Structure formats: structure tokens, C-alpha cells
Amino acid sequence: MIDVLLLQLPIPQLNYGKQTGNVPLGAACLKQAAEGLPGVHVDIFPESVASYLGDAALIELILSRKPDILGFSVYCWNAERSLFIAEAIKEKYQPKIIFGGPEITRDNRRIHSEWVDFFVYGEGESVFTDLLRNQSRWIEKSAVASAEDLFKKRQSPYLLGFLEPDIENMILLETQRGCPYRCGYCYYGKSRDRLSFTDPDVLFQTIQWAHDRRIREIYLLDPSLNSRPDLKALLRKISRINRDKRLEIISEIRAEGIDVELADLFAAAGFSWFEIGLQSTNPEALKIMNRPTHLKKFLTGSTFLKERGILPRIDLIAGLPGDNLNAFKQSVDFLAENDLKDDVQVFPLLVLPGTDFRRRSIELGLNFEASPPYPVIDTTTFSREDMLMALDYAETLFDMVLYPMPDLDAAWCDGSKVGEKQPPDHWVRIGSHRYISKLGLNHWRSFEELESLSKKLTHPYQIIVGSGSWNLQYIRKTLEILTSSNPFTPLELVFIEPETVPDTRALLPSVKLRRPHYLDHDLRFLFAFPGNRAVLFTLVSQDSRPRFSGVMERQVFWWRNSTLPKPADLEALSGLDGILIDSDGCKSSMEDWQDRFAEHVDDILFVSFADRKLQKRWMELTVSDDYYFNVFSD
Asked: Is the pTM of this model over 0.90?
């Protein structure tokens, strides 16, 4: 029996338990393609496990299984972490390792490794099944093959129970492969020279399945939904299935192709929003990216959607070749002046492997980071300072924060009067095992114990530093131990009323994360200067004077009054980054406070509770759609 394990690692983040969108759809398609092959057993590392384990814990779990074949779905956000785990596994035993996914392109030298036995370019189903049937194919080291026939007729993997829709209460539905456009910044569909569409009956079956199971949302993954030739007939059938609008359907579309009839059909079918890639209004930039756009038709189509209650989520890219700061501002102004600023996403250009922009980067004058996610640094017409000014202009005009700080969760104990207790470890259950999401430094713990615990950490994790362990050298050694075992796992240090303000510059050299970490680039514009973005430092103190506000530093007021804070108290503390409520009031009064203030959460500073149970309740009231709470309990 050939035992196969397929794994997809999540986008790194600094809040434990936050939904990652790490749906292993590609792995599920491979498992489905291999169903029925004699002598083969294929498993998928569950999203609910793969998304929340630290590096060392993941490695230990894989080694406990020891599959014959280990397959990775590789994206820009998990490429280097996938390589690290592949190497760590190969050092222990010799499975065959396959890499596939969007990051696997022939021009991406960063991904080539002696630890990987086979690279799959483009669609994977046909290549995967061939490798399982014919061992001699492994000698080829790489392959590309169409999976069109498999794609057109197969059921959605959700119907076979291969995926976990309950995590986000959403399913991803792939109904099209390939793209009719060849935008310079995008790799989607470059490995295909024609479009393929699933059989409509397969699509309707999946939508009916989701509707019957009260799934909240379906995301149609088509890169441009209105490229389907049978779209209007398809929408009429969906509207009959979803006549009660129980399902919210979302997708991507070119707004220029939307007329009144199509907009009506989208509304009747239950579409709630579309992602629409405007990217720029600059004719020169649009020409270079090979994305002709008729702005008047774009406005007309977007307006038709808005009039029917369908939100157009507009994308803009900063740093495009041929663009400059003034032209970018004109693109921002265009959306604001035409009442299209309800939901705008602004990104710095990513010069992705396999794209036309990567191939022509020297010719186009694109200076970009060599490591994922490959953001542009500057161009011949867009300086580094221009990038900062462009994003700041968009934030001001759209009244939004493009790079918000992570949510505040400084809880460290159960029960009231927790401020009088030392912070213990917080164990959570992920899958069938227990792990640590909050490691308490409440006393001098041996380095041998910390080495053992480093293999039990979640992704990400917190270190809660109590007053009893405030020793610079000891904390530095702790950081070295934990991060050496978990070099791709972000973390947060929470200091509870230390004697002196922590010197983060003295601590960072002991952090053994692989640099630059993905977050160092992805969250580059969280602060004005580049540097660390994968380690967050939080100071909890009863001193309300601002004194901890550097890069990746935030200061939180420790509220230990017997009475709960009033609006005036929160306003008085608005110069800080948050408040940690540690009152000894009764449970009912605390919950009543939460109920009253939850509706104002967007207008006040970050709020956290020292009691973990109260913190979880607060999160359920205020950010319930953002978190997967099953991984918070022991």
C-alpha cells in the first residue's frame, strides 16, 4: 500500500485562531483523482490542523505518520516554509516529496531544492495519478499535463467529504480553468492556452448541496466570471436553487461586461459582492500590463451592481510599471469621485514568478524583493517614498487602514482577579493532540523544558512574560530556543508590568526566524521603515504614559479598577493601543459591559480581557466571522 499525505500551509499571521482561508482545494482534487487506484491511500492534512501548528509540531506530526509520499501545495506565502519542512523530514527518513501549485514555475529558482523529488507545473491531477501508477516517472523530476477531462466531469471534493466547510462556513467552487486575459502581473492560467468549464450539472449539484446544508457563502473561483459563454442560463438555474437567498455567492468579474440584464440575474441568483480588478486608470500602465479597460463601461457596470445591492470590491495596484504617484492618485480620485470607495483593496505590486512582469523586470525597471511575496521596492517612475505616499493617500481618501495592527488578545488566565496570578501555559486541542498557544514565563523554567515545549507550539504563539522572569538574558535564551525550532512561526511577547520598558532591539537578535520572513515583506507598510514584522511586542502596564510605540511595539493599559471602564475612560486612554480589563466584578456585570460596548468596537481602542473565557466571549461578540473558535479549547 502506498501511503500519501498532502499538505498545504497557511498564510502566516500574528493572531492565533484567526481564519486563514487555507482551504486545501488542490489537494482534495488530487485525492479525488486518485480514488479507486489499487494499492494507494491518500490523506489530506486537515485545514483545521495544518493552519494552526508551529513548525516543530507539524514536523513531529508528519514523522509520527511517516507517509511514503508527501505532497505540498505551494504558494508564495508558504514556499520557504514548505522547503524547510521538506528538508527536516528528509533528514529523518526518505519519503518521496512532491511540490505543486502556483509557486512552481520554471523561472522560480528559489523553489528548486535537492529535498524535493518532483515538481508539477500547472494542473496536477494527471501527473499525480501517473506518478502513483508508474514509479519510473519519478526519474523525470518534473512534468506538466492537462487535466481537462478530469476537471470537467468531477464532483466538487466537498460532496465527498474531503474538505471542512464549517471553518469559514464557506466553500470554494472551481468552475473554470484558464483565463481569457494575459495581464502582466498575473500568473493565473499561464500554463493553459484555452479555457475549460465544469459541466453545469456538476455546478448545480454543488450549489444545491451547499444550500441544503446551510452553508453561508460560495466563492466561485473563476478569474473572470463573465467569460462563461452560458453564464445567463447558468444564473437563471442558480436563482431557482437559491430563491430564498440563503446562500451568498461571490466571485471575480470584469465590470465592463455587465449590462442591466446580467446585473438583475446576479442579484436574483444571490450574489453579494464581486472582486473587480481595476488596478489603474493610467492608460500607459494599462497598456504595459496588457489590460485594456473602458472606464466608462467600467463605471456603468459597477453602478448596475451597486443599484442592486451587490458590492463592487475594487482593486488598485501601487507601483505598476508606467505608473507614477500622480497617476496613482488620479486612480484613487476616480473611485472616490464616482462613489466606488465603499470597499477598495490597494496592494503594492508583487512581481510573481511565471508572470510577464517577472520575465521583463529589467526591461520595465522593476526593482523588487527577491523573496516572497516579491513586492516591488521601486521603479523608474515610482520611488520608495512614492510608495509610502501612495498608500497614505489611499488610506486618507478612502478613510481606511490598509495595514491594521493585529487584534489584541492579552488574556493569560482563567477566573477573576487574574492579575494576582502568574501566567500559566495555555494548552489547546488541535486535532487529537494538545499544544501551547500561550507559553507563560512565570518563573525560571529550565532550558531543557523549553526545548521540549518548543515542539508543542501553535502557529502563531504568544510568550506571556510575568514579573518573576523579567531577565534580559533569560528571555533572550528562551527566544533563541523557541524560534530555532520554529523559524517560520510568528510570535508575540506580552510583558506584564515589567520593571523597565523592554528593549526590543536587544531582544530581536535572539529571534532565530528565517529572515526576511514572509510577514516582513507582506506587512512592510505597517510602519514607515522596513524590518521585523513577524514578532510583535505588547507592553501591559498601569502606567498610562505612552512609552512603547516603536516598530511592532504596542502599549496596553492594565485596567485593575473594581469598576469597569466608562466611555470617558476609554476616550482618555485613546493615545494607547488598547486596554486589558482585569476587574474583579461579577461575571454578569462583565458580560453586560461586553454586550453594551460590542456594538461600538469600531469606534474605541482595542479591548482585551485578562480572563480567557471573557476574552473568548468578547471575540465571539466582536470578531466572530474572523476566527475559528474550535481551536481555542483544551
From this structure: yes
